């Protein structure tokens, strides 16, 4: 965020749904095998978090229109911008769920959780994984609430979108069915931009939640857009900014989408793509290290400079004495 503007970072922490009331206490996310011969083994620690505080013409649903020099669409997984950039009939426009994931979850007062949950699981953010699915427990609201989710896969394509069956819950409170949601991501878009329109964040590369890096990738998008925009001298150069963004960000962002799909299969011990991992706990840990290294150890300053360089090549603009 600092690569964009310190005000962005300050604004984020003002609105952040903080995990803990103590600003200085840290919690790590532990991925733990919950079943099998290596039950209880921590296979990954996923970082630490403190308890922190021409024109584009828009046709609006109201029937009115508006114009702008460009449009940056950060309008989520069901993106109208994506439909425009790729076309509505493009096969990669709509969200997908190839691995049939869904989530059951809710939020509970922490005092109720503390009555039943092992104190061990209150010292870190636990992810318990096994062949039947994954449990994830994350404190929010300054540690006053526990957000609990269970992720599992439907047995067939026919089940996706039908869970839960309303007939099974006719005597339940209506809020019960709201606890179940289907998880989606996007297939790889062939490009993120068209003319003076570009998509970013979930609109461009929505991902399963299994790498916990969707927001991080959106922030990288913002930084890479910001870097060449600082050198724009005329609105005619805006398409070059978006082309540079597409060239630099799309390969990395789509790689994270694919890694999240693979990580999701590792949680329920679906090792078809990781045969060595089923035989070696160390190989499984190594896979997680590679995932974490790709998302966390990138040189984001260099990524920004690459976007500036591509922009310079397109426009022939001289920046800092070089092309």
From TrEMBL:
It comes from the Eukaryota. Keywords: FAD, Flavoprotein, Oxidoreductase. Residues 186-259 form the FAD-binding domain. The lineage of its organism: Eukaryota, Fungi, Dikarya, Ascomycota, Pezizomycotina. The keyword Secreted does not apply. This is FAD-binding domain-containing protein. GO terms for molecular function: FAD binding; oxidoreductase activity. Gene3D superfamilies: FAD/NAD(P)-binding domain. InterPro entries: FAD-bd, FAD/NAD-bd_sf, FAD_monoxygenase. GO terms for biological process: secondary metabolite biosynthetic process.
């Amino acid at each position: 965020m600092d690569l964009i503007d310190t005000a962005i970072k300050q604004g984020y922490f003002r609105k952040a749904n903080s995990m803990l009331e103590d600003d200085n206490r840290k919690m790590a996310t532990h991925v733990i095998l919950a079943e099998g011969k290596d039950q209880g083994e921590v296979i990954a620690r996923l970082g630490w978090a403190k308890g922190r505080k021409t024109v584009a013409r828009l046709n609006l649903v109201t029937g009115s229109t508006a114009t702008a020099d460009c449009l940056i669409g950060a309008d989520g997984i069901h993106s109208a911008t994506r439909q425009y950039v790729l076309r509505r009939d493009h096969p990669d426009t709509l969200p997908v769920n190839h691995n049939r994931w869904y989530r059951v979850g809710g939020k509970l007062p922490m005092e109720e959780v503390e009555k039943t949950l092992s104190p061990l699981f209150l010292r870190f953010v636990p992810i318990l994984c096994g062949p039947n699915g994954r449990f994830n427990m994350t404190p929010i609201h300054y540690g006053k609430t526990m957000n609990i989710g269970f992720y599992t896969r439907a047995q067939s394509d026919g089940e996706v979108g039908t869970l839960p069956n309303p007939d099974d819950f006719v005597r339940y409170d209506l809020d019960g069915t709201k606890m179940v949601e289907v998880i989606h991501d996007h297939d790889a878009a062939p490009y993120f931009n068209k003319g003076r329109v570009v998509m970013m964040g979930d609109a461009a590369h929505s991902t399963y939640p299994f790498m916990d890096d969707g927001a991080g990738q959106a922030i990288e998008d913002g930084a890479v857009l910001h870097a060449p925009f600082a050198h724009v001298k005329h609105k005619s150069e805006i398409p070059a900014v978006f082309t540079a963004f597409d060239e630099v960000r799309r390969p990395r962002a789509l790689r994270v989408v694919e890694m999240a799909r693979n990580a999701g299969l590792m949680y329920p011990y679906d090792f078809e793509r990781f045969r060595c991992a089923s035989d070696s706990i160390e190989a499984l840990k190594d896979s997680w290290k590679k995932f974490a290294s790709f998302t966390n150890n990138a040189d984001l300053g260099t990524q920004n400079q690459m976007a500036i360089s591509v922009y310079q090549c397109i426009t022939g603009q001289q920046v800092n004495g070089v092309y």
